[in-house]
Amino acid sequence: MKRRVAVTGLGMASAIGLEEETVWERLMAGRGGIGEISLLDTTGYRVSIGAEVDSEEVSSRLSAMGRRSIDRALDLAMIAGDSALRQSGLIDGEPPYEPQDVAVIFGSGVGSAESHHTAFTAFAKRGVRGLRPTTVPKCMYNAISSGLSLQYRLVGTNYMVVSACTSATNAIGAAARMIRDGYADTVLCGGAEGFFDPFFYGVWNNLGVLSTLPDPETACRPFDADRAGCVLGEGAGALVLEARDVAERRGARIRGEIAGYGESSDAKHRTSPSAAGQARAMRQALEEAAVEPSDLAVVNAPGTATEANDECESRSIREVLGDAASRVPVCAHKSYFGHTLGASGALETITTLLSLEHRTLPPNLNLERPDPACGGIDLVGAESREIHSPWAMKNSFGFGGGNGVLIVRGPDGE
Amino acid sequence: MSTSSDGGNDQIMARMRALLEESSTEEYDWSSITRETTFEEIGIDSLSILDLLYDVDQEFGVPLEASEVIDLRTLGEFADLLVERQKA
Fold this sequence. Notes:
The structure holds 2 protein chains of 2 kinds. Chain A has helices at residues 20-29, 55-64, 72-88, 113-126, 135-139, 143-152, 167-180, 198-207, 244-249, 275-289, 307-321, 334-337, 344-358, and strands at 5-13, 34-36, 49-51, 103-107, 158-161, 186-193, 235-243, 256-265, 296-300, 329-331, 360-361, 378-379, 385-386, 391-397, 402-409. Chain A is an alpha/beta fold. Chain B is 52% helix and 0% strand.
């Protein structure tokens, strides 16, 4: 059984907005979300910038949903999930909701960082007596997927995919396969990260991959010759995937389709990428969607802005796209969202869908002098571009050597 | 059940106030809480009640189960139950 997989709902909580319209406006205006960190004291840290979601907006949305803050990652997932479910028409009005046979598959590389930090701090201060009972349900990775299931009474399976920066893309791919193969009609999927706490930000600070450029607006420079590393960002993205025939029967608005998915492991190095591993996932995804490289309107790249990653993925794009590589535009939206790790695949799949729907690619920020080492691919610059094909490739490549690739079809892809 | 607002019950309310102020992440004017303050008002739900019961056990040495307090609405009702258990 092979069914078409439609996207019927999109939701975001990001540094450039919580509403789809706001996010699209910011993308088209070239206004990124990176600034000085306010969620923690960065005194003594080498870096002090990141892409934060507006905390007042988060509080106000949670309050409108009748929820209190539990953990930042879960809070952001709830906001994105709520938007996606409402947009799809699966949820309306106030709780309590009727049970629905909808599965939840979410990704997160870090999980409940805030709850872990609270527990570590209490343990350091009071020993075992400081560890309160809710530490367990708050710190478990599936606090996110089970939280969504509980809030909206979604009675399909719920679980997490944990694969660093590939988490959300893997989650969307797994969800699409469930629907394609007939195991579910509807899945709420995506990814969430909320990790701006002193410990987590500290370990990344010391890892040596964060940009030390002082100006937040220009610090994240994917594919630029002067790039200096990535900038962390928090956020969540959620998509409602649905069997296309089921979505059509209920008259749902179809925002696009997940037409192909590929995944692979480099099996080479914990933190250094491999073009060969990436290429295998890209080829699988193209083959499953029966799409030729020359059909693609865009490749939405990870574009982490680290020296090794951007160069490596330029190589794998050239390898897989062949002659088409110089004609298929490449986008890198971490210049707006920061690197949201396990949420990035969801946020960037959503911006890919929005790009296809608007038939426009937003500009890449800070790409002033494309790195010759990333040559042979068509990088979108400071100007937006029109596109005329309904097909896009979304790539995610993560620490641990996991690669996930989606082929996305726009809403006019008939 | 007693609803007295003097003696041991008042002391318990004062200790409860200090305990909530120290442990809660909610922004609330803890000096304003009274016997009539509800759990809902101070952000105690079915999850965070587990933490409150744990804190109360640590502070008062009185173990309570979530099932025993699930139907209680106000801090005063909770304080009464605590007093009753302390006497037992």
